[in-house]
Every structure is written in structure tokens, then in C-alpha cells.
Amino acid sequence: MTLMNNKERVDFLRREHTLAREEMRVLFESMTEEDAQYLYQNAAETAREIYGTEVYLRGLIEFTNYCKNDCYYCGIRRSNRSAERYRLGEDVILNCCDNGYRLGFRTFVLQGGEDPFFTDEKICALVSKIKERHPDCAVTLSIGEKPRQSYQAYFDAGADRYLLRHETINPRHYRMLHPVELTIENRRRCLEDLRDIGFQVGCGMMVGCPGQTTDFLLDDLYFMKEFRPHMIGIGPFIPHRCTPFRDEKPGTLTDTLHLLAIIRLMHPRVLLPATTALGTIHPTGRELGILAGANVVMPNLSPADVRGKYLLYDGKICTGDEAAECRRCMELRMEKIGYHVAVSRGDSRV
Ligand code: SAM
Ligand code: FES
User: Fold this and answer.
1) I need a labelling partner for 19 at 20 to 30 A (CA). Which of 5, 105, 135, 196 fits?
2) What separation in Å is there between the alpha carbon of 297 and the centre of ligand 2?
3) Whose alpha carbon is nearest atom 12 of ligand 1?
4) Please, are residues 166 and 184 in contact by the beta-carbon 8 Å criterion?
5) Which of 58, 60, 317, 337 to probe ligand 2 with, by most ligand atoms within 8 A of CB?
6) Pocket test for ligand 2, best of 60, 105, 326 (most atoms within 8 A of CB)
7) Is 236 exposed, middle or buried (0-12, 13-18, 19+ CB in 10 A)?
């Protein structure tokens, strides 16, 4: 039995940065449009108290779409024979960074499938070359599950941050999304190792992915509260036509915005991107994400000729644009809602 109304729940969450599980459930499941506006407003104010109206930019370089894994949701899974595979050479990647630097990016995110071609040696060489050319920039890696010694080598080579969404912390749900060789235990081990080593670490999940229940989402929220990541990446699940989840429903804009705002109130200082997937399900999804408490955007720096091949889901935006266009577009989008993109590394203030 609960005596709070949703506005009081939001006030409590803003003040205490947590809420009892049952209260959180009621808030999530009974949110009216008016409650949601109140939630977004509180989340955006919380972000502004810490980060002002600055939005941090990350330049995303999708450097390989080869992947040895077979996650059921992902368009670049190894069983998708119709994916046109590519790898970027070192020179091309370094060029993307140079170009990004000129455009004001001070963080480069190297993301890819789990591609054995990129050995630890190659990744380390790449990271140290980027850091040599741009010592004032941060390098973020997002290349999946590795042994601890690999993570240590990347860190020693100069990598600053690592993104590895946990996807779902519930083992039963994890099993619905991944084949048996992938386990939540190993995912957790990776996240612990990364934090231990000294990376700024990001975890997160897809909103509305198949099999997700409110209970599983609550498990994710409380897991993240305990883990205290520096970054949290969430975006809607969007089906890809060549995956086992082709006929599943996508996650909704509303659920994603509710969660972004709740996460902001639970983790006032966390780095929280308004993701490309959010921009894909709604024309102003990223702007709405910022207005619900997000404070990071990740425009694409990959060369235009490969963008259309890094397709995790159908309908991905910005596949035909040059980096400079995306950068300018993002600046205008942010200015329209009273924010501005920052030329800085944009480190976590956790
Ligand atoms: N291989 C690395 C890893 O596993 O962390 C990085 C690349 S992986 C494709 C990046 C993220 O894309 C995943 O963590 C997942 O949450 C997201 N993703 C994959 N398929 C998606 C889909 N169909 N809809 C929305 N997001 C998706
Ligand atoms: Fe890429 Fe708008 S952010 S075109």
C-alpha cells in the first residue's frame, strides 16, 4: 500500500536519488502525460545544475561490422549473411579522428563488432597513435567482451573509457536475447574488470527489447544504482529485418524518455547520451532526450561510404551524411532547444 502520488515520487527521487522498488514500479506503470512532463522537467533541471546547458559531443567511428557473436537482436550478428562486411584500415580511422578534431570533437568512440582481426596489438597501436596525435582527446572503446589482460593493455595504451552495455541483468532475460555462449556472468565480470582497471565505464540496455518486463527493467535500474557507472547508454530496441527478432515490436519513445529521466534523477552526474536509436524512432528524439535529462550526443564520424553498412537495426538515421554535416546539424538541433555543444573532452563528473 502506497500513499504517494507520482509527483511526490518524482520529488522523492530527485531528493534521494532512489525510490523503493514498488514505488518505482507504480511510477513507471501509471505515468500520465502531466506526470511525465514533471519528471522530464526535474531531470533536465538536475542535469543543468551539474552540466549547465552544455551537451557533450562524442565522435563515433564504427570501424568494423564483422562480429563473431550472434546476439538475436543485432543486425551485424555473424549469422546475417546479407550484411555487407567492412573493416576500416588504420589510416582511415586516424583520418576520421583528424577530421573530427578539426570539427571540434575531443572524444573518439571506436565501436565495432567483436572482430578477431583487430587483435589486442592492433587496438593498442591504434589507441596510442590517436593519443599521440591528439593528446587532449579522450578515447572510448566499445568492442565487447575481452579477457582482463586485454582491457589492461588497452588502458595502458591510453584508452580512457569503455562502453559495454549489460543489456539486461536478469539471467533468464539475458538468455532470451543471446545464444548460450554469452552469459551475464561474463558480462558482469567484464564490467567489474574495466572499472577496477581504471576506465570510465558505461553500461546500459535497450528499452522495449523482446521479453522485457517492468520487473526486468527495475532489476536493471537497481543493478546500475549499485554499480555506479560513469556513463549509461540506453536507447529503444528497433528490429532488424535479418534477425530472429524481425517481427518484434520496437521500444517506444515514451518509455525511453521516462527511463532517461528516471536514470538522470538516480545518477545526477552520469554521462547520458541521447542515442541515434532514439533519433531513429522519432525525428526529434535526440532533442527530446536532452530535454528529459540526457547530456551527450554521438554524431557519426565514420566515412560516408561505410555508414550504410553498420546497421544494427532498420531505418538508422544519418547514414548518408558527411561528418561535418552531422556536426553542424547537431549544433543547430541543440541550439533550437536552448543548449549548445561543447568543445571539450566532457569527462564524467561522478
Ligand atoms: N560489440 C560491442 C558490444 O557488444 O558492446 C559494440 C557494438 S554493439 C552492436 C552496440 C550496442 O548496440 C549493443 O550493446 C546493443 O545494445 C545495441 N543494439 C544492437 N542491436 C540493436 C537493435 N536492434 N536495436 C537497438 N539497439 C541495438
Ligand atoms: Fe547526422 Fe543530423 S546528426 S545529419
Assistant:
1) 196
2) 10
3) 312
4) yes
5) 317
6) 326
7) buried
Identify the band that residue 348 occupies on the pLDDT scale cut at 50, 70 and 90.
confident
pLDDT in tens, 10-58: 999 999 999 999 999 999 999 999 999 999 999 999 999 999 999 999 9
Question: 165 C-alpha vs ligand 2 centroid, how far in Å?
Answer: 23
CA 139 to mean position of chain CA atoms: 15
Secondary structure element (H or E) that encloses residue 161, with its range: strand 161-163
Helix/strand/coil for 296 = strand
- Segments of 194-311 assigned E as strands: 200-207, 231-236, 296-297
Quote the longest CA-to-CA distance of the chain. 62
Q: Which ligand is nearest to the CA of 165?
A: 1
pTM of the model: 0.98
Residue-wise over 338-350: b if at least 16 C-beta within 10 A, else e? Answer: ebebbeeebeeee
Backbone dihedral angles phi then psi of residue 346, each to the nearest 5 degrees: 60, 55
Q: Which H helix or E strand runs over 110? A: strand 107-112
- State which amino acid sits at residue 109: V
Task: Give ∠ CA 149-151-156 in degrees, rounded to 5.
Answer: 90
Q: Which amino acid is present at 67?
A: C
pLDDT of residue 350: 57
- Across the chain, what does the average pLDDT equal? 97
CA of 193 to the centre of ligand 2 (A): 34
Q: Does the CA dihedral 223-225-231-236 come out positive or negative? A: positive
